[in-house]
Write a structure and sequence with these properties.
Layout lengths: L4 E9 L2 E6 L2 E7 L1 H11 L3 E6 L11 H10 L4 E4 L5 H9 L4 E4 L1 H5 L2 H10 L4 E9 L7 E5 L4 E6 H11 L3 E6 L11 H10 L4 E4 L5 H9 L5 E4 L1 H4 L5 H10 L8
Parallel strand pairs: 1-4, 1-12, 4-5, 5-6, 6-7, 7-10, 10-11, 11-12
Antiparallel strand pairs: 1-2, 2-3, 7-8, 8-9
Length: 255
């Protein structure tokens, strides 16, 4: 049976891991390199590193932090934030990342997905998509960029399908409305995207308990679930989450 993945997200600002609610009120909670190593020790399947202010500040990613994390972990490692060119992608891969996440830059210049996939393969290119409820959109959800600050006027499903056509190998779908709330994932949006594309979908935003992961991995049909607050604040370890998921009958990799 196909195993579901657990992914820990490290949002980084000014060299520190940070966390907020609905992309607001962020506070620093630790060193990303030390935290990455700890989650690797706990048995996480993948790590995602986002330099959350790189795009809005129009600057490059903090490559030294990426390099230091890559030295400590030996699992798939995805990096995003401030990646605007194929050359930026090359810098991140050379620093040790296996996957590259593009979000705001891809909306502004969709060809970056195609160019990245042609050079590095679709398996390396991840579309990070921040979506929020918007009744004016056909799917009921619109795409926002620059850390939730800018509405694009794009429909969530249209953008997901286009990104797949351009060569994205995976989509990380983050719900702005659920982000950091720990009240559960946006199941409907996740299922809509999962049913609309043929590439893996990672659910993001709202994880608070292992049951929330179970729901989005089954009802939402996600291939993986991203967590942050529930492990950052010590409510659960990665091992705790996997044991409970296994108890629910969800297939996960157990160390």
């Amino acid at each position: 049976m196909f195993q579901k993945r657990i992914v820990v997200c490290l949002d980084v600002r000014d060299g520190k891991t940070t966390k907020g609610v609905k992309f607001k009120g962020n506070r620093d909670i630790g060193d990303p390199v030390d935290m990455a190593e700890e989650y690797y020790r706990q048995g996480v399947d993948e790590l995602v590193f986002y330099d959350i202010t790189a795009s809005s500040e129009r600057r490059g990613i903090m490559i030294d932090v990426v390099r230091n994390v890559a030295k400590r972990i030996f699992i798939p490692f995805c990096v995003g934030g401030g990646i605007r060119t194929v050359e930026d992608m090359s810098d991140v891969i050379m620093a040790g990342a296996e996957k590259i996440s593009v979000n705001s830059a891809a909306v502004r210049n969709p060809s970056i997905i195609k160019s990245g996939a042609e050079r590095y393969g679709s398996q390396c290119i991840v579309l990070g998509m921040d979506a929020e409820a918007d009744p004016s959109m056909p799917s009921g959800y619109g795409v926002v960029i620059d850390g939730g600050r800018v509405k694009t006027g794009r429909d969530m499903l249209d953008w997901a399908k286009e990104a797949e056509t351009l060569g994205a190998g995976e989509i990380v779908l983050n719900s702005i409305d659920a982000d950091g709330t720990r009240n559960g994932y946006e199941i409907r949006a996740t299922r809509l995207v999962s049913d609309a594309v043929g590439i893996p979908v990672v659910a993001s935003g709202g994880a608070g308990t292992p049951k929330h992961l179970r729901d989005v991995l089954t009802e939402g049909r996600a291939d993986a679930a991203l967590v942050a607050s529930m492990v950052h604040y010590g409510d659960y370890s990665v091992g705790d989450i996997k044991r409970e998921l296994s108890g629910y009958g969800v297939p996960v990799r157990m160390d």
